[in-house]
């Protein structure tokens, strides 16, 4: 697994020209500021000696040039450097979005943790450029220039300034980074707890109130917020100590430069004008390195944020990349599962086997039911059929064409359906349907609504958050309408009648089966009322599937599923 800096480097590499350009422009702006102060010192000290008008004119012109150059360079630094930072941030967000869209990280983190990592930790890329690279390069380039100027004026003064800048620009920031390492890690964990607590509190507000648990949930959020506040205070203390230590080093270095310069003037080895330039150059040089302690303290937080993104970016895929098959999958056909063994990915490889040697058939136009206890592996089988999970062994074919060797998007166009808890987005009916087919026209959308018994709904009707304005049956019908827009060969319906009253259940089943229209239908259910609607029933127990035909349903005894060639 690559480290956080390797991930940052991979994102910044395509933007390297902008990052380097912004850093050099920042160094130029900083150098112009320091040069302006040194030139002002020379101008004021020289003016007292009544120099020629030409010398004064040249100095005034240079002062104006440095002043204008500083502003222009600073503007261009913001333009070029921030543009590169924002583009790198966009690239990082694209990577995180792509991994989240693959579902593996979503299954391994709580929603609040993902929100914290997607928002706060992803911004670390921008902070790395704006708050780390740009000021460090500017300080290194401009600081070196200040040391060279001071050494040219008076070598001992240049050596003293170099030592002071190393203390203020390297030693103090290193100490600040060491002191902030612990608080930065605790801040990340506290942000996770705070985001998770807030999401749980808002999403589960009704249930929390019903069970009198709102106070405990609010207290947990308050505790996470208090921890984050304490961490922020520790960060502020570290920043204050860094700024104070930098100011102390600057003051001592400035005092030393004055003592050395005055002694040199008394000895006749240094003039009054160079002394003034030396002193103000020393003062300007420490303004250059003043942001570095804060940058070093922030660097630990940046590294922590990037490290927290690694589990998301490197979550192992549950489905291997595949190439499209030589022929498109049929729009109708027989689904056959043979010898299927499946397990969900674990920390170091496949986890415990959930399904073993499963055989199952869904013929064209057939309604097949799959029943089993909770945790028996029914949803795992649905995940394999939907290509959310690769099997460890076995095959899944549609009219003889293998599905487990096809890309997920291609398979989901042939095997679609309704999950156990279909998500309805806070938008209109039209936009919820167009998730399945963005190019579908209003006539096609209206027709599919009629097929699932939702003809009374308008396409512009708002459904509310999580479909709050729809009943449970209407949400399932809407999810089925989405699946039908894909025109799949097989429909997989996971608990289609869950939480429905008998009247609504029967109506939903009627509409579901009527809308199937010659497709194979696999109904995964706990509901015994569904079984009389099925042409064939399978029972999933002990990680294996057993078949019950019509006679077996009458006796209630499961029979072993016959061999594939039986």
TrEMBL record:
UniProt domain ABC transporter: residue ranges: 335-566
Major location (coarse): membrane
Source taxon at top rank: Bacteria
Record's bilayer topology term: Multi-pass membrane protein
Entry keywords, A to Z: ATP-binding, Membrane, Nucleotide-binding, Transmembrane, Transmembrane helix
ABC transmembrane type-1 domain span: 20-304
PROSITE patterns assigned: ABC_TM1F, ABC_TRANSPORTER_1, ABC_TRANSPORTER_2
Positions of transmembrane segments: 23-45, 51-69, 133-154, 160-179, 237-265, 271-290
Region (Disordered): 543-566
Annotated localization: Cell membrane
NCBIfam families the record matches: CydC (TIGR02868)
Protein's name in the database: Thiol reductant ABC exporter subunit CydC
Organism: Pseudonocardia spirodelae
Underlying gene: cydC
């Amino acid at each position: 697994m690559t480290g956080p800096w390797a991930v940052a480097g991979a994102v910044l590499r395509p933007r390297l020209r902008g990052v380097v350009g912004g850093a050099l422009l920042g160094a130029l702006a900083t150098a112009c500021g320091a040069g302006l102060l040194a030139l002002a010192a020379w101008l004021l000290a020289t003016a007292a000696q009544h120099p020629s008008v030409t010398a004064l004119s040249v100095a005034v012109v240079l002062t104006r040039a440095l002043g204008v150059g500083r502003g222009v360079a600073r503007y261009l630094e913001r333009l070029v450097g921030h543009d590169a930072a924002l583009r790198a941030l966009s690239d990082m967000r694209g990577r995180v979005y792509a991994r989240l869209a693959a579902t593996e990280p979503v299954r391994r983190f709580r929603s609040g943790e993902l929100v914290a990592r997607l928002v706060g930790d992803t911004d670390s890329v921008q902070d790395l450029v704006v708050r780390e690279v740009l000021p460090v390069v500017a300080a290194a380039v401009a600081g070196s220039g200040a040391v060279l100027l001071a050494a040219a004026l008076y070598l001992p003064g240049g050596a003293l300034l170099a030592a002071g800048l190393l203390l203020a620009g390297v030693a103090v920031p290193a100490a600040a980074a060491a002191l902030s390492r612990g608080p930065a890690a605790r801040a990340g964990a506290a942000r996770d707890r705070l985001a998770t607590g807030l999401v749980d509190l808002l999403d589960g507000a009704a249930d929390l109130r019903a069970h009198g648990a709102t106070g405990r949930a609010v207290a947990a959020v308050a505790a996470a917020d208090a921890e984050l506040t304490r961490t922020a205070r520790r960060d502020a203390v570290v920043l204050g100590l860094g700024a104070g230590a930098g100011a102390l080093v600057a003051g001592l270095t400035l005092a030393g430069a004055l003592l050395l310069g005055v002694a040199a003037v008394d000895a006749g080895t240094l003039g009054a004008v160079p002394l003034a330039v030396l002193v103000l150059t020393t003062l300007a040089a420490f303004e250059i390195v003043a942001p570095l302690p804060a940058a070093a303290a922030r660097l630990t937080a940046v590294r922590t944020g990037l490290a927290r993104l690694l589990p998301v970016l490197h979550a192992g895929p549950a489905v291997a990349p595949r190439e499209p098959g030589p022929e498109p999958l049929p729009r109708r056909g027989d689904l056959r599962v043979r010898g299927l063994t499946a397990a969900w990915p674990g920390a170091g490889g496949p986890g415990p086997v959930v399904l073993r040697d499963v055989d199952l058939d869904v013929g064209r136009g057939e309604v097949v039911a799959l029943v089993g206890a909770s945790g028996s592996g029914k949803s795992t089988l649905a995940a394999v059929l939907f290509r959310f999970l690769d099997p460890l062994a076995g095959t899944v074919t549609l009219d003889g064409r293998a599905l487990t060797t096809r890309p997920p998007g291609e398979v989901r166009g042939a095997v679609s359906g309704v999950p156990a808890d279909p998500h309805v987005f806070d938008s209109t009916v039209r936009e919820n349907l167009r998730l399945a087919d963005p190019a579908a026209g209003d006539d096609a959308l209206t027709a599919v609504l009629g097929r699932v018994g939702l003809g009374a709904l308008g396409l512009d009707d708002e459904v509310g958050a999580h479909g709050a304005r729809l009943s449970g049956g209407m949400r399932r019908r809407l999810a089925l309408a989405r699946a039908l827009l894909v025109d799949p060969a097989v429909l997989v319906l996971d608990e289609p009648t869950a939480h429905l009253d008998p009247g609504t259940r029967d109506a939903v089943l009627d509409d579901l089966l009527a809308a199937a229209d010659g497709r194979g239908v696999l109904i995964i259910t706990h509901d015994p009322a569904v079984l009389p609607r099925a042409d064939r029933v399978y029972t999933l127990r002990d990680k294996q599937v057993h078949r019950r035909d019509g006679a077996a349903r009458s006796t209630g005894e499961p029979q072993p599923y016959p061999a594939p060639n039986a």
